[in-house]
Amino acid sequence: MKKVVLFAIMFVASLSVKAQSYIGYLTDNYSGVNGVISNPANIADSRFKTDINLVGVSGFLANDYVGVGYSDLISSDFEYDDDAILSLSDNNNFSGNVDVLGPSFMFNVGRTSSIAVFTRARSFVTGNEFNGESIDDLDDSIDESQDFLVDEGDFFAAGHGWAEVGITYAQELMNKEEHFLKGGLSLKYLKGFGNAYVAGRNVTIDYDADGATLPNSSTIGTLESTGDLIYGRADDYDDDNYDYEVPDANGFGLDLGFVYEWRPDYKDYEVTGADGEKTVMKDKNKYKLKFGLSLTDVGSVNYKGSLMDTYNINNTITQDDYDNIEDSDDLQNLYTFTQATEDMKAGLPTALHFNADWNIKNNFYLNFNTDLSMRSAGENNLRTANVFSLTPRFESKWFSFYLPVSSYQYSGLQVGAGLRAGPLYIGSGSLISTFTKNEIQGADIYAGLKVPVYYGQPKDSDGDGIPNKEDGCPKKAGPIENNGCPWGDIDGDTVMDNEDKCPEEAGPVENNGCPWVDTDGDTIMDNEDQCPDEAGPVENNGCPWADSDGDSVLDKDDECPNEMGTVANKGCPEPVVTAEVQKSLNEYAKTILFTTGKSTLKDESTPVLVDIISILNEYPNANFTIEGHTDSVGSEATNQQLSEKRAKAVLQFLIDGGVSPSRLTSVGYGESKPIATNMYKDGRQKNRRVEINLAQ
Fold first, then answer.
1. SS3 99
2. Among the four given CATH numbers 3.40.525.10, 3.30.1330.60, 1.10.10.10, 3.40.50.2000, the one describing domain 579-694
3. Residue 404: its pLDDT value, please?
């Protein structure tokens, strides 16, 4: 049975190996189109105008069954049985790959998206849950004729080779100040080259060194086995004529990824064009921290008309039968054999990738990466080996150097080194540990050539922060607002046009480059007008005269500017004719004397009338009535006429003395309003009078 197991394992292993690829190099921001392997979002906002990969090859192998030192391995007298170090357990595993990235290229579509087209040839081998202790016991015990029992249970091994032609689209999803997010999707057409797998179900082997007696009475060992062995493969893969034909096998796959970048200094990487639109520098890494998450190799290849061989090994055979096993025909003679033809689906080695990158300072970075298999162990399941890597690196446009320190499932801790120098990239995730460890359980290596076309720093000849191709005046520094040109002074008033509110009319600096105007039309320019929006005389600095008390007499003419008055009284309130004033007037009036029987004023009345004029002028807005009265001597008609003439005589004197005639009226009452009896001389004297009364 050992030959069956070993034959199957070696057959699958002959397909070559697959797991992780380009360890260390894919953490580089200058990995270009190669970056789609781990995360399709990588090509958006990349450092490349375009990147053309000519060829790249990566190989990887890891196992937890056998290890060997590098010096022993290259020694001419190396013996596997003596020099190999076995790590036997009831669950040994192995995994590996060869990944060839063929002609591939990427380019940008606009400012925010990118496209890549890539070709790959890949092969993969994986084995899980092998009982290494049983395999070793099987070999030793049969050779030494010792009894043993192997409880192998279930085990799996699979190999697959295929080609991919893929297209990737990546797009910026968010670019908001310090937060940046991009996503990408790869769609892949798959062409299968070959697929095979071996599986064991409930396999047990019981070896009895003296299990059978021969006719000559000697004994021989026997192997009693149970369980099933399944061997599936693409039709004609193991044709005896070795005429290889590409199988009828096709499929589709996809990769999906996202990358988030934290850019605390995002303003340092913004470029504003002459049109005012802001763009981000393409030639710079902008982040302080970057996180990537991707799911790769989702899909499968369907092999039409594949062969499924099943061996039911519930049987007991002798050691001679075991020793004579040479090929599958011998197995079919010993065990129950069935074969079926059916389509066989080979799933891709789906994996989840998480990546965190820290820009320590300038060109120095520290990267953490993990690759986790999303496939469980099972028949025809391809599984990547889980890897955790910590990679410090120096990175620049034309040169990068990496020192990945990785923990590999199955093969333990590995230390490697790699570099990128222009078009060349080369390295290994296990380079250093290969030459320093006594026990090597895994190794990898990669190398490739490409044609990188990097973004350059935008040329800015005048240093105004606007690239020449977007600068209206590339040789003269100027602000963005003026299309990169310096501000001019069209009207020559020394006020630059960007600050000149009247750029085509000369004006002083203090008026923002505009000529002074006379807004209120009062002939005083606004710069000298204390009331530029209200017309006013020059003598009041362009402001209208005020009327503080609102009496329509302007303050400049108002003798009482804070007290409402009359125009006639020069803005002051009019004096009120009181009863005392009225009485005083009439007392004066009593002393006005006339020639007997006539209306002629006597000379001695002149001082009295002058005093009356003075009193009346104290009340310029008051109107007065001059009333004439007589006694009853003579006819009534005569007395009436005499009283009227005397009243008019006084009125005329007052007018001649300066009292406005509009303020005065005269009236004669004759003898009709006596103030005393006319029977006596004293009474008649009192009745002959003139009164000056306030007009009502």
1. strand
2. 3.30.1330.60
3. 93
